């Protein structure tokens, strides 16, 4: 870790906003800067998601250095993720693309699969999302349009059998703001997806650019793990 921090330091200084997003992650906020009326909502849209109860949490400087080092050593896309249920904030690099699906992973083989930024699967995270049908929701979210969608999540039960959960979701849009994080500079629109079935309910929250790409999000992973937050850095 020491060598990584030392190597990344010059790039961290060039990417000042990256240090800022790491610091805001430690406070439970996602970095997004704007003078637009909705800016306050964008800055705080994942409030509480990055909060960690550990007595010795990773510092903003460590997180920033790790992200800067990842951006320096690869031309691939890089994401910064936070999963508060296991007190993890880390960087993942894009490993492969299969059609519209991008898989990001860590050196210890933990991975997330995204479709235009929307979570469709996880591996080795714990209580993994085996797959998800997100076509209806993604169409509305990418278009930054309100509407209703049905999505299906698939997880394994205690006997390693696949259990499908069908959720009905209401999608609405919020305001716009300017995002400047890592190598990302874009105008984004906040999109909120409220999902429920007979047993549970949750909200997925997205920041979507003008091309329809989800640049930052808080997305439900599983009942055991709760939500995961994902920030694109490139």
Measure the end-to-end span. Answer: 22 Å
* Element string (H = helix, E = strand): HHHHEEEEEEHEEEEEE
General shape: globular
Structural class: alpha+beta
Please tally the β strands and state the result.
12
- The chain-level mean pLDDT equals 81
Strand content: over 45%
What does this molecule look like?
The protein is of the alpha+beta class and 234 residues long. Helices cover 23% and strands 45% of the residues. The protein contains five helices and twelve strands. Strands 5-4-3-2-1-12-11-10-9-8-7-6 form a twelve-stranded antiparallel beta sheet, with helices on both faces. Strand 9 and strand 10 (201-209) form a beta hairpin. Helix 1 packs across helix 4 (60-73) and helix 2 (16-27) packs across helix 4. It is globular and about 45 Å long. The two termini are 22 Å apart. Mean pLDDT is 81; it is low at 1-16 and 22-55.
């Amino acid at each position: 870790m020491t060598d990584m921090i030392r190597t990344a330091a010059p790039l961290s200084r060039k990417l000042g906003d990256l240090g800022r997003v790491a610091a805001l992650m430690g406070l439970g906020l996602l970095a997004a800067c704007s003078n637009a009326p909705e800016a306050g909502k964008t800055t705080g849209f994942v409030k509480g998601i990055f909060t960690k109860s550990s007595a010795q949490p990773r510092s903003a400087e460590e997180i920033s250095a790790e992200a800067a080092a990842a951006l320096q050593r690869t031309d691939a896309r890089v994401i910064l993720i936070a999963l508060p249920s296991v007190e993890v904030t880390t960087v993942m690099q894009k490993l492969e693309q299969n059609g519209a699906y991008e898989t990001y992973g860590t050196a210890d083989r933990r991975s997330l699969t995204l479709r235009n930024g929307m979570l469709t699967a996880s591996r080795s995270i714990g209580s993994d999302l085996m797959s998800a049908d997100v076509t209806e929701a993604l169409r509305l979210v990418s278009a930054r349009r309100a509407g209703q969608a049905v999505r299906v999540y698939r997880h394994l039960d205690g006997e390693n059998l696949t259990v499908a959960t069908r959720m009905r979701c209401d999608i609405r849009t919020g305001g716009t703001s300017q995002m400047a994080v890592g190598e990302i500079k874009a105008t984004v629109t906040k999109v909120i997806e409220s999902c429920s079935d007979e047993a549970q309910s949750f909200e997925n929250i997205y920041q979507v650019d003008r091309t329809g790409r989800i640049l930052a999000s808080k997305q439900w992973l599983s009942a055991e793990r709760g939500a995961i937050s994902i920030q694109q850095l490139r």
